[in-house]
TrEMBL record:
SUPFAM superfamilies in UniProt: P-loop containing nucleoside triphosphate hydrolases (SSF52540)
MF GO annotations: ATP binding; ATP-dependent DNA damage sensor activity; DNA binding
Start and end residues of each RecA family profile domain: 2-235
Highest taxon listed in the record's lineage: Eukaryota
GO biological process, one term: double-strand break repair via homologous recombination
Protein name: RecA family profile 1 domain-containing protein
GO cellular component terms given for this protein: Rad51B-Rad51C-Rad51D-XRCC2 complex; replication fork
InterPro entries with a match to the protein in the record: P-loop_NTPase (IPR027417), RecA_ATP-bd (IPR020588), XRCC2 (IPR030547)
Length: 331
């Protein structure tokens, strides 16, 4: 009956375009993720060593997701949706998230946050913000912590019902954030196999577990169009990479292998995730720390980081710092 109703349904061209474009509306995130427009069902991988501000970028994306577009005549530029944050590293700081949200609310708009680079308006003992909007945004942020691969799989399998429940209340999930996708790789690799809990005699290898993870995330993206962002810690051959080396870094070739992903030899870091995950990723950005520090208006020295888009490949680097109010580009 549902299929018959869908076939016999009628809508104008304006209604059809509005429905399609609303589902495919790009996510314009804050720097340094602003260079490439991201759409629902895209999978963005944020790669970098520890520390390289990967979690800060996830928090910044989550804040943009839960904030409204406008509230009481004030423009916040958010997506007015829900964000699901799956913490596999078990190092998420909810107080940091709350503090950044209060600063975003107190600033009034994104443009005012950008101007914070040039003045020192954030130095005050208390933050004035809208309590009602703060409570609304915190309710839109769903946090899940997993301690092993099977808890992660169980979480993914139950997310569909959680999202369906939120939709029943008129809420729409816009982002799925994972920090970090390779957290259990080395722990699982220490064992030759991963025994399933219960009486099932089967055992899963690292390959099959990651393949199942990819399948579950793919199902979620098909049923609930949203943007998936995952961080991944990696190791570089040379840790002491300064700004000059970063600027002279040869860009990797973006040609695809037969399996659909970038080959390991074309990446500037060692890839350890199975091909099932590598081919699933649609966008990739690389973060690198540097030995440089920048003194800004708050009289503090901030570590400088570099970001580089690998997929799609862009021909330049962005330089940014992490301040009290979040991540900011620097010239």
């Amino acid at each position: 009956m549902e299929a018959k109703g869908w076939i016999s349904g009628d809508e104008s061209a304006k209604e059809m375009l509005g429905r399609v474009l609303s589902r495919a509306r790009p996510f314009l995130l804050l720097p340094p993720l602003h260079r490439v427009p991201l759409r629902p069902r895209n999978v963005l991988e944020i790669v970098g060593p520890s520390p390289s501000a990967k979690t800060h970028l996830l928090i910044q994306a989550a804040l943009t997701c839960v904030l409204p577009v406008d509230w009481n005549g004030v423009h916040y530029g958010g997506f007015d949706g829900l964000a699901i944050f799956i913490d596999l590293d078990c190092r998420f700081d909810i107080f940091r998230f709350s503090h950044l949200l209060k600063l975003r609310l107190a600033s009034g708009s994104i443009s005012e946050i950008d101007r914070e680079q040039n003045d020192n308006t954030k130095k005050r003992s208390s933050i004035a913000y809208d309590e009602e909007l703060y409570t609304l945004c915190m309710r839109r942020f769903s946090y899940v912590r997993c301690y092993d691969s099977f808890e992660f799989l169980a979480t993914l399998k139950t997310l569909h019902y959680r999202i369906q429940k939120e939709k029943a209340y008129g809420n729409c999930v816009h982002m799925l954030l994972i920090d970090s996708i390779g957290a259990f790789h080395w722990i699982d690799r220490a064992s030759t196999c991963l025994p399933l809990r219960g009486n099932n005699r089967k055992s899963h290898s690292i390959q099959t577990v990651l393949e199942t993870v990819v399948q579950e995330i793919r199902k979620l993206l098909l049923l609930h169009p949203m943007l998936a962002i995952a961080t991944k810690a990696t190791l570089f051959g040379n840790r002491a990479m300064n700004e000059a080396k970063c600027r002279n870094l040869r860009k990797p070739d973006t040609s695809y292998s037969q399996s659909g992903g970038i080959t390991a030899l074309q990446l500037p870091y060692r890839e350890y995730m199975p091909s099932a995950w590598q081919t699933f990723v649609t966008h990739r950005i690389l973060l690198r720390p540097s030995d440089d520090h920048l003194a800004v208006s708050d009289d503090q020295n901030h570590s400088v980081y570099f970001s580089e888009w690998l997929l799609p490949s862009l021909s330049f680097l962005d330089k940014f710092i992490v301040k009290e109010a979040g991540v900011f580009l620097v010239a």
